[in-house]
Amino acid sequence: MNLEVRVILLAIIGGLGLTLIISQLLPAQPSLKDALDRLSGKPDRHDLLTTTKITQTETTRVEVATLNVGLRLYPILITQRWLKIPVKDLAILQRGVPRFLGDKVLSATAGLFLPSALNLVAALAGVAISWRFPVLAGVALAIALFFAGDIEVRRLATAARTEFRRALGAYIELAALCRNAGIGVTQSLEVAAKVGDTWVFQQLTDALDNAAYSGRNSWTALEVVSHELDIPDLADVADIMELSGVHGTSVYAPLRASAAQLRNTMMSADQGDSRSATQKMSAPLAGLAVLFFILLLIPAMSNIVNG
Where exactly are the transmembrane stretches of this chain (predicted)? Predict the structure, then answer.
């Protein structure tokens, strides 16, 4: 195979791959059946825990394909005991379990075939290696990418919980001010939640609205959110408001104290992170100092050896 044929084959493969990537990144065409079901008010086929609502104006074909793969594999993978699904982490990230499973499966599939595809391109260029190594590398890469999603979700969930707790401090202060002004317990929680427009306040607003529509107490709704998102500080707020709602206890001082304690905890965590970052910088600085010392010794050692 001469050089011109190889260049033509590589150009065809590259053009086909680029076309597929562009086609997958374009906005997805809405499903007519799903659109008619939403317009007719029919319930979703899956509950909110296991699905992710698709907004066609904001979702690409890749995301739709990932969700569809996850929905098909969900009944199979959910029964596997070795597969640990971080439900609470996905809940605070507002991601469905099928979307999470689809990401894992597609990432592992891509990792499985990527080394072999690269070796195929290398074979067309005349520099291929034994197929044993790409196959083994593909298996190892597939396993690594399959579990890499858990690490990424855990990292994002930790950051989201930190953001939630920062906003929760402001929410507690607002609820305390509303309660001190003589507003009722439920109304205080609802008014405080409607002040902010971030995703944290939106989640609190949705939970309180659902509780009002279903006839539940507002503090019960906060306890449910605290359990689903793994935010213990929110459960403390729910307990304080329950005392006021059931026994009529004054909660202005306890709420202010809870907000102050939350801020102090966050400040201590930030100070610990800053100290940790400072300590991490010590190793590179020490390495630079050692390297500079070695550079100073090289001329002296050279003179000693040659002299």
Answer: 6-26, 135-153, 285-305
Question: What is the b/e burial string over 71-105, where b = at least 16 CB atoms within 10 angstroms of the residue's CB?
Answer: beebeebeeeeeeebbeebbbbbebbbbbbbbbbb
pLDDT tens profile 97-133: 888 888 888 888 888 888 888 888 877 777 767 777 8
Q: Tell me the whole-structure pTM to 2 decimals.
A: 0.66
Residues 100 and 85 sit within 8 Å (Cβ to Cβ): yes
DSSP 27: B
Q: Measured between alpha carbons, how far is residue 98 from residues 101, 103, 203 in Å?
A: 5, 9, 21
Contacts for 157 with CB less than 8 Å, ≥ 6 apart: 86, 88, 89, 90, 92, 93
Instruction: Using alpha carbons, list the distances in angstroms from residue 188 to 65, 146, 238, 299.
Output: 43, 45, 12, 75
Whole-angstrom distance, CA of residue 57 vs CA of residue 55: 6
Residue 271: pLDDT above 80?
Answer: no
- The residues pairing with 140 across neighbouring beta strands, listed in sequence order, are none
- Any idea what DSSP says for residue 43? P
pLDDT above 70 (res 267): yes
The pair phi, psi for residue 27, each rounded to 5°, is -55, 140
Pairwise CA distance, residues 5 & 121, whole Å? 13
Tracing tokens 């405080």 back to the chain, one arrives at 192
Q: What is the pLDDT of residues 67-92, one digit of tens each?
A: 788 888 888 877 777 888 888 898 89
